[in-house]
């Protein structure tokens, strides 16, 4: 049996445990966060534990989650529905910025963590708590994202990270600890249990672990819980249109919808057409590479359509500068620096660029592929009159000679210098 003993000196150094009387815990209802509740009480002098579960769109039975928290020893439980706030205040800014980490990852977990952490801080202040606790491991990115947000919003708050100090090192250890403390564990069905570690919200579903830990292994179709495998998608293409206002998606197929309903609709459309599967070996902030498989059906459609509209509405210099900065913005979000001055400054820049990103993009979906099918905007910078290969009255082709002479003058001067040196 796994005991509750820890390196007390280490805990005291990091948390001043004797001063902690009330703790707010980021609670999911899973095994790890359930065993954390009695562990906190044992190691922090019977402190009051307040469990906070954020509903960011994961398909959980939140009544059952609440009951399990109480059965695990929580003194109080909050279930916070933050889906709308998640999309409007965290996802849409990233969409407008065009952020994609390392060319593939649409940041589904990354921008959910600062929201969850901000909610923990809000409730901790309301409840007069001394500390905030999370169940992220010492190997991952989430520990950084949780803790940087706390430092930014409540620098006086103590942080407890059990995985960095306790003696529980495996799922078997956690199960033994749960059994010893009468913590309810969901019974597995007779079917083989799902082997992957997941993070699920309304924007994405991630899969890690098991056979995916070897990048040589192709993901099997039973990995996917949201998206239809492309080869099983319909044999006929489906068209979908997305309307944007100042870079924010507002309607699907001409039907205005709120943020939550809009993404739900696009998730359904994308999923049935095999859209949004991403397989990436990414660079974690903590120094190692990890392999993840992501399902982003609605998110993939939104990001693709938004970029199509920018092609139409942004001038060359602004688009190229924005493309450079979007990579930095993505790194900041991935690294947990949501509440940093630089991220906020970049967001202000992005908002200015999006003033004219309004219009409608039509996409053709076919067996996992997104194909452009037309874009329109009242702010379009495209002019058929100027770009036509036919005769026109608006562009004097003779002007190009002077432009090329001036634009190429540095090249000419260098060539003349090199020729003179050879003589």
TrEMBL record:
GO cellular component: cytoplasm
InterPro entries to which the protein is assigned, alphabetical: Arginosuc_syn_C, Arginosuc_syn_N, Arginosuc_synth, Arginosuc_synth_CS, Arginosuc_synth_type_1_subfam, AS_cat/multimer_dom_body, Rossmann-like_a/b/a_fold
Entry's localization field: Cytoplasm
Catalyzed chemical reaction(s): L-citrulline + L-aspartate + ATP = 2-(N(omega)-L-arginino)succinate + AMP + diphosphate + H(+)
Domain Arginosuccinate synthase-like N-terminal: 22-184
Keyword DNA-binding: no
Residues where L-citrulline binds: 105, 110, 141, 145, 197, 206, 282, 294
Residues binding ATP, per UniProt: 26-34, 54, 135
Binding site for L-aspartate: 137, 141-142
Gene Ontology biological-process entries: argininosuccinate metabolic process; L-arginine biosynthetic process; urea cycle
Domain Arginosuccinate synthase C-terminal: 196-413
Pathway in which this enzyme or protein is active: Amino-acid biosynthesis; L-arginine biosynthesis; L-arginine from L-ornithine and carbamoyl phosphate: step 2/3
Protein name in the entry: Argininosuccinate synthase
Species per Swiss-Prot/TrEMBL record: Megasphaera micronuciformis F0359
